Amino acid sequence: MSSEPPSPDSAPGSTPAQHAHGHNHQPDPELYRTEPVSFVRRGDRLTTRRQRTWDRAAGTYIVDVPRDRATTSVAEGTRIDWAQVFGRSAPLVVDIGSGLGESTVQGAVDHPDWDLISVEVYTPGLAAMLVQVEDRELGNVRGVQANAPEVLDRLLPAGGVQEVWVFFPDPWHKTRHHKRRLVSPAFADRVARVLAPGGVLRLATDWSSYAVHMREVMQSHPAFENVHPGRAAGAGSPLTRVRLEGRELQVGAQPVAPRVGTLRAGVSEATAGASVQDPVDHDGGWAPRFEGRPLTSFESKALNAGRLVFDLTYRRR
Ligand SMILES: C[S@@+](CC[C@H](N)C(=O)[O-])C[C@H]1O[C@@H](n2cnc3c(N)ncnc32)[C@H](O)[C@@H]1O
User: Fold this and answer.
1) Cα–Cα separations (whole angstroms), residue 245 to 44, 169, 173, 235, 266
2) Where does substrate bind (predicted)?
3) Is the pLDDT of residue 270 over 90?
4) Which helix (H) or strand (E) holds 35?
5) In the chain, is it the N or the C terminus that has fewer CB atoms within a 10 Å radius of its CB?
């Protein structure tokens, strides 16, 4: 899931008829508004255990979403009464791109007084989470199988969310794919709308170029303030270390050639682009590792490959 997807696939919800028409005036179902989606469709095959769990529990724990065109879309005008869904009114935490659901489950176990919404397009991921939800008898978790920007715009009330988590979003390494990255100025606007004042957005990534992008997007957004301004700057910055220690020698499956004359040998192309002259990160602002974030297979893979993890926390003003 964290490796570079080969290429965006065909529109999940499109019909053969749509493809057949040369002059299709319908909106491209792969887009939400004018934005490409940040995921590619992957196999939805379930193991026997996950299939059984899905068949038994999805009706209870996976929220039914009216669709627009694509199978992962959310129909305009949809409203969900979360207090009714959970049977109570409690602080809402939204885990976006929750993968196998480890952080959602951990949050639900650690905070029985919170209600957690896991947003994921990948059925096996949601099914794996349901196995845990059933095993641990968690009443405070629901899954939504839909494109996260649409969930933020259409399913969540303004100012109604306490925390939004985005852990290890797909990195989309290639420059021409950067527009598919989930975290963007438009995404920050969407999160700003749903977070209550004082609510927080927690981000984590193992790719320095995405970390720098996230920090730039969030620092320049007027609705947010960094909870850890200036923290871990200079020699102690994970960014400085990645740049000087050459820790991202593979990007996707591709080895990265050192950029002679720009930075020291071994420095990541993903981090540097052509323009970084000073490898020292003078800005910092990195958060300590969020203790509510369990070590997932994605993070383990990153650490085993020698990469570092960047955490960021922003508070809604
Ligand atoms: C690299 S995985 C990380 C999973 C998990 N957060 C973790 O830390 O282990 C990213 C996940 O985000 C999901 N995803 C990507 N774009 C999404 C979107 N627009 N809406 C919902 N899920 C999305 C992918 O299907 C994938 O499971």
Assistant:
1) 39, 24, 20, 11, 7
2) 174, 206, 296-299
3) no
4) strand 35-36
5) C
Question: Could you tell me the CA-to-CA distances from 67 to 10, 14, 60, 280 in Å, in that order?
Answer: 17, 12, 19, 47
Question: Is 16-233+291-316 in CATH node 3.40.190.10?
Answer: no
Distances in Å between the Cα of 246 and the Cα atoms of 60, 64, 237, 258 are 47, 46, 14, 9
Atom of ligand 1 nearest to the CA of 166: 6
pLDDT band at 1 (very low <50, low <70, confident <90, very high): very low
pLDDT tens-digit map of 97-108: 999 999 999 999
Instruction: Convert the pLDDT of each residue in 282-293 to its tens digit.
Output: 999 999 999 999
- Taking 90 as the threshold, does the pLDDT of residue 263 lie above it? no
The CB density around residue 98, as the number of other CB atoms within 10 Å, is 29
The rounded Å distance from CA 169 to ligand 1 centre is 5
User: How far is the first Cα of the chain from the last one, in angstroms, to the nearest whole number?
Assistant: 33
Q: Please state, in angstroms and rounded to a whole number, the distance separating the CA atoms of residues 169 and 25.
A: 32
Instruction: Map out the domains of the chain as residue ranges.
Output: 16-233+291-316
